[in-house]
């Protein structure tokens, strides 16, 4: 195998060669020392805010936990992102293979006969290799770019998981709120039916006008209509969940169940940890690294391409002598190619790569800014909804008491039925607003968890 010694020497030289193009430096991004969290907000320590975990379990619902597990394995958006990640990894391996020689084995045998009836036989077997040493780092920069792209694809996969999990949790919580609202309407309708019966009794006794009965019937019919409308909302959420867990909407059902409006407390770390936790930020940063490496790929085009070829084998006209030493043949080849004139095409390609890098840096910084905006929005919403929910509780309790008092006064004949109808409508609105306030707090907690890049785990018990 002595003929291949020059190839080995070239390999040593190649390992000491430098890759052209700029080495990657993570671009700076705008950040802040702290979030504008409301007074009294608990800030997580950086060590506590790293593990994402199964954050949806914080809502204490076994059905939600089961659905999240199904979505992890059956959701088609996640499946597509996972396939894209495998594709990116395979492309990296394919590109890295260009750093090594391509070795081939070939053999042939031919027999021919001339018009003089002479037989011509020829048998060959050999091994050959071709190699383009990466003196200027074109392949290494390509590997670097593809590796960064694969890492970005991994971050995209993590982002797909986080997005699907958040969408599933929000849809499920809204579905359970619809169940709770339906139960509330059922209870309210039962009360309205009793009120209607009281009104009819008073009308039949001649102590109430017919209009009281009509008003009671109107209030009851409106409540029943609202109850029917909730069926549509629930079906919409149920069908959305079906898609998220990879099942046809027509065959997927979730039985009504009691809703527990647990509002998990979400500690938030310092802003710098957001850059490490959000998968969309990680993906954008890896895209910058890939764009930086591609500058070197384009700059390598200004240098000549060197290719080496070699072969070693045997050839004979007698098959029995095929591996005899007298039939050995070998060859070495060296090729050098350089573009002398391309009317500026290579320079334009480098400028395109630099422009692409600049654009990816801007996209990265914009992603960071948007991430901070998301967190601030959800922190504000969390605080506002918490304070608003306390007022809704007060309003609902007061409305319930007013409704009971007005109904008693109507039975005593001291108020008109219009007062009863008004009190009933106000109480129902307040009850529904309280339920909506609770689910809004839950879905905002989901959005906040997504905005900080996933869940957390406090191992220190803080």
Task: Describe this protein's structure.
The protein is an alpha+beta fold. It has nine helices and four strands; from the N terminus they run αααββααααββαα. The protein has a four-stranded antiparallel β-sheet, with no helix packed on it. β1 and β2 (119-131) form a beta hairpin. α3 runs antiparallel to α4.
Give a short synopsis of this structure:
The chain is α+β, with helices and mostly antiparallel strands. The protein has helices at residues 5-15, 62-74, 76-96, 138-204, 210-244, 271-277, 279-299, 345-411, 417-451, and strands spanning 102-113, 119-131, 305-316, 328-337.
> What string, H for helix and E for strand, traces the elements in order?
HHHEEHHHHEEHH
Radius of gyration: 37 Å
Shape: elongated
Main β sheet profile: 4 strands, antiparallel
How many DSSP E strands?
4
Q: DSSP strand (E) fraction? A: 5-15%
Q: Whole-number average pLDDT?
A: 84
Helix vs. strand class: alpha+beta
Q: Extract low-pLDDT stretches.
A: 1-9, 11-16, 44-51, 458-462
Q: Give the N-terminus to C-terminus distance in angstroms.
A: 67 Å
Strand order of the largest sheet: 1-2-3-4
Helix content: 55-70%
* Number of helical segments with 4 or more residues: 9
């Amino acid at each position: 195998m002595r003929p291949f010694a020059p190839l080995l020497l070239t390999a040593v030289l190649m390992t000491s060669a430098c890759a052209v193009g700029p080495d990657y430096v993570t671009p700076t991004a705008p950040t802040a020392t702290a979030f504008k969290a409301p007074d009294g907000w608990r800030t997580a320590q950086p060590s506590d805010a790293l593990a994402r975990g199964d954050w949806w379990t914080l809502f204490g619902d076994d059905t939600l936990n089961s659905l999240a597990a199904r979505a992890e394995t059956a959701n088609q958006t996640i499946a597509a992102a996972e396939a894209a990640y495998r594709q990116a990894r395979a492309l990296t391996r394919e590109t890295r293979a260009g750093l090594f020689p391509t070795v081939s084995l070939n053999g042939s045998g031919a027999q021919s006969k001339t018009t003089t009836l002479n037989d011509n036989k020829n048998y060959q077997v050999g091994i050959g290799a071709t190699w383009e040493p990466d003196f200027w780092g074109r392949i290494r920069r390509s590997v670097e770019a593809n590796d960064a792209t694969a890492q970005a694809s991994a971050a995209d996969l993590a982002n797909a998981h986080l997005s699907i999990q958040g969408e599933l949790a929000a849809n499920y919580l809204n579905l359970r709120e619809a169940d709770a609202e339906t139960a509330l309407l059922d209870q309210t309708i039962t009360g309205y039916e009793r009120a209607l019966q009281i009104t009819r009794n008073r009308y039949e006794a001649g102590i109430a006008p017919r209009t009281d009965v009509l008003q009671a019937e109107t209030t009851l019919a409106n409540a029943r209509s609202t109850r029917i409308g909730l069926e549509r909302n629930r079906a919409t959420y149920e069908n959305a969940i079906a898609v998220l867990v990879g099942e046809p909407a027509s065959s997927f059902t979730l039985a009504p169940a009691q809703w527990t409006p647990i509002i998990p407390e979400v500690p938030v770390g310092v802003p710098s940890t957001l850059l490490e936790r959000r998968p969309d930020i990680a993906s954008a940063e890896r895209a910058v690294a890939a764009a930086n490496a591609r500058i070197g790929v384009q700059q390598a085009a200004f240098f000549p391409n060197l290719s080496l070829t070699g072969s070693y084998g045997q050839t004979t006209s007698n098959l029995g002598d095929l591996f005899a030493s007298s039939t050995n043949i070998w060859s070495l080849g060296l090729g050098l190619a350089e573009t002398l004139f391309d009317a500026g095409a290579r320079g334009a390609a480098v400028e395109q790569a630099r422009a692409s890098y600049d654009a990816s840096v801007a996209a990265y910084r914009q992603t960071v800014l948007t991430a901070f905006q998301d967190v601030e929005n959800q922190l504000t919403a969390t605080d506002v909804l918490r304070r608003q929910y306390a007022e809704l509780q007060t309003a609902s309790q007061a409305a319930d008491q007013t409704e009971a008092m007005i109904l008693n006064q109507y039975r005593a004949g001291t108020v008109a039925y219009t007062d009863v109808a008004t009190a009933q409508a106000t109480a129902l609105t307040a009850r529904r607003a309280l339920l909506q306030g609770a689910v809004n707090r839950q879905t905002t907690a989901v959005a906040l968890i997504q905005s900080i890049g996933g869940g957390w785990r406090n191992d220190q018990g803080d």
